[in-house]
Specification:
The complex is a heterodimer of chains A (about 280) and B (about 350). Chain A is mainly alpha-helical and about 280 residues long. In chain A, about 75% of the residues lie in helices and about 5% in strands. Chain A starts with a helix and ends in an 8-residue tail after the last helix. Chain B is built from 17 helices and two strands. Classes of the chains: A mainly alpha (about 280), B mainly alpha (about 350).
Chain lengths: ~280, ~350
């Protein structure tokens, strides 16, 4: 059981990575991007192409992709999402547009790459393990992912609370009316925030595509996990999101220990129970 | 525009709807079994579309978890018809109440979420229902199970007879679902819902009980989704978690239908369903790309005309085809157009 909990905590790092981008867009732009999981899968396929066609290593491919995803997030917010949010400020429009986007990405990938499950080669890092003793083995890759998730959350935390851009993002997020009044370019700041979300998506896709299998339709399950982590952590709280990801992952890991078929269901059920007890999340802002 | 005013567009629109209705009622005598089967699908999707529109278009519950209750209906029908062994017709009737029972705990969860979070929340609930359904070996676990021949035969031993029976049941469901929803929309609750559609804050200020209206709508849709699930199972002749709880078939298509037809109007889902079935024949040849076309069309609709095809038509058609509002609405097209008209109006008005 100790082993399951440790593996679950490490898996929680990956789930937190799915979720920090969503947490940022929920906290700053105040909407749930239903295509979030599909964007992660889209970038994973991009990495697959770069590594197999051009023979690049995952790290090199990720370095190429990060500026692209920043630009992609920026443009997505500026050209599409911002228009929807500013024109008709209702839930229906933004849910439907991001939902439509999700379907478009899923089936475009299916049309281009086919429905097969894929894995990006990490060059041997997948199989490396550290023997801790007492029946516990820690994979090097899961450990690296967990540490990267902690680093990512710290970096975003620093960015939001220690930089000029972060202060602007928080100002626009707290009160867009006043922010506009003092002359902040709110549309560009939102777009920059979405660009940062894009960067988290690239980092997350790099780790996910090496560690777990993915196919064009696996974005939905990633979205649900990310959503659960965000809600459990408390909307807009980045460290809470990390905790939420760990809770979902540990629940899945323990569920899988009893019966492999219960992995996903155990995660969802624990989410529902914790949510009913603490609807405001563990670390509400 | 002057010419358009002379054409009785509302009457023409109602005439088209009436023709479609007559065609649907006469269908068992007109069409061959294959067409009847397509029309059965159409009616089931129409019911799902009307229900999604009621939630998303009026009650501000943008659900992405509609397939959960359809799947519950499928499994409830199987449970009663096969496992309990009641008459299969009775099992169809029990599928709705079972979905309603499942809607109560679902509501406790999702109504704690707001706005877009609620949307994803409904999806999580539906996902839990699907994964849960796959855990019961009595229902064939993850793979599902076919309906026994004896149950299928109860609806007609010949294939033509069976298709006709299932079609008639779907027609009854569609008529009841739309008739009841029409009455709901015309009731005091419905007026509140229309106010919520137009401006939620203002509706709340004017005394509409937003929470109560939402609860009524959510519980309203569940049994109809359950009945639809039972009828869908009769067409597919089997239950399985992936097919009975299919998000693509019972939620994604339904969303596209309503958005393209026109969300937040009674006509929208009807127009959307018929348009979808007309273009579906062409779309099927495109494979996965037809989803991309539908997705782009839905996004374009939201950006250009959020009220869909009916919103575009409504710019020239001076009234609702199916009036869910009470007072005759004064539109720009019926205002006095000349000074003679206004003079006549003034003269005809009683003094004092």
């Amino acid at each position: 059981m100790m082993n399951e909990i440790i593996q679950g905590i490490l898996l929680g790092g990956l789930y937190a990575m799915f979720a920090v981008g969503l947490s940022l867009s929920v906290g700053v732009m105040r909407f749930v991007n239903i295509a979030h999981g599909d964007l992660i899968v889209l970038v994973s396929f991009l990495l697959l192409t770069l590594t197999t066609r051009l023979g690049l290593s995952v790290i090199a491919a990720t370095a190429i992709v990060i500026p692209l995803t920043f630009a992609g997030g920026y443009l997505l917010q500026r050209l599409l999402l911002q228009r929807v949010l500013s024109r008709n400020n209702n839930v229906l429009a933004i849910v439907l547009v991001t939902f439509g986007l999700s379907i478009i990405i899923q089936y475009s990938l299916q049309g281009i790459y086919g429905a097969d499950t894929r894995l990006v080669s990490g060059g041997g890092i997948q199989t490396a393990t550290i023997v801790v003793g007492g029946g516990v083995n820690i994979g090097v890759l899961p450990l690296a992912i967990f540490l990267a998730a902690v680093a990512l959350v710290s970096a975003l935390d620093l960015l939001l609370y220690r930089t000029r851009l972060g202060a602007r993002i928080r100002a626009v997020s707290d009160d867009i009316g006043s922010a506009n009044l003092i002359g902040l370019p709110s549309a560009r700041i939102y777009a920059a925030a979405m660009g940062i979300v894009g960067v988290t998506i690239a980092v997350c896709a790099a780790f996910m595509s090496v560690w777990t299998n993915f196919d064009p339709t696996s974005g939905s399950s990633r979205l649900l996990i990310a959503f659960e982590a965000v809600v459990l952590g408390g909307l807009g709280s980045l460290w809470g999101t990390l905790a939420g990801g760990i809770i979902v992952a540990v629940a899945q890991s323990i569920g899988a220990h009893f019966d492999a078929g219960w992995q996903l269901l155990a995660g969802h059920l624990v989410f529902l129970v914790v949510f009913l007890i603490r609807p405001q999340g563990l670390f509400p802002k | 525009m002057a010419l358009l005013e002379k054409i009785p567009l509302v009457s023409i629109g109602r005439g088209i709807l009436a023709l479609l209705a007559v065609m649907l009622f006469a269908a068992p005598w007109i069409f061959d079994p294959a067409s009847l089967q397509i029309l059965t699908e159409l009616l089931c999707l129409l019911v799902l579309a009307v229900m999604w529109n009621l939630l998303a278009g009026y009650a501000d519950i943008v659900t992405i978890g509609q397939h959960g209750f359809v799947g519950i209906g499928c499994y409830a029908f199987y449970a009663f018809a096969v496992l309990v062994g009641v008459d299969p017709f009775l099992a169809v009737l029990l599928a709705g109440p079972v979905a309603l029972v499942f809607a109560l705990p679902a509501m406790v969860i999702i109504f704690r979420l707001r706005a877009a979070y609620l949307s994803v929340g409904t999806w999580v609930v539906a996902e839990v229902m699907m994964l849960g359904a796959g855990k019961f070996s009595a229902f064939g676990a993850g793979l599902g199970v076919s309906l026994p021949v004896s149950v299928v035969r109860r609806f007609g031993s010949q294939i033509v007879e069976r298709f006709t029976t299932i079609y008639v049941m779907s027609l009854i469901l569609a008529v009841v679902a739309m008739g009841a929803t029409y009455i709901l929309m015309r009731s005091a609750t419905g007026i509140g819902l229309t106010a919520m559609r137009d401006n939620e804050e203002a509706a709340g200020t004017a005394g509409v009980n937003l929470f109560r209206s939402r609860v009524i709508c959510f519980l309203w849709t569940a049994p109809f989704l359950g009945f639809a699930g039972a009828l869908i199972t009769l067409q597919k002749l089997r239950i399985a978690p992936a097919a009975s709880f299919s998000i693509i078939d019972w939620t994604v298509y339904v969303i596209f239908i309503v958005v393209i037809g026109g969300v937040g109007s009674f006509e929208g889902p009807i127009i959307g369903t018929f348009v979808f079935f007309v273009i579906r024949e062409y779309l099927q040849g495109w494979g996965v790309w037809h989803f991309i076309v539908l997705g782009c069309a839905a996004i374009a609709v939201i950006l250009i005309e959020p009220r869909g095809i009916w919103g575009i038509l409504r710019r020239v058609v001076p009234g609702d085809l199916i009036p869910v509002s009470h007072s005759p609405r004064l539109t720009t097209h019926t205002k006095p157009s000349s000074k003679w008209q206004s003079l006549k109006d003034r003269l005809s008005r009683k003094p004092g």
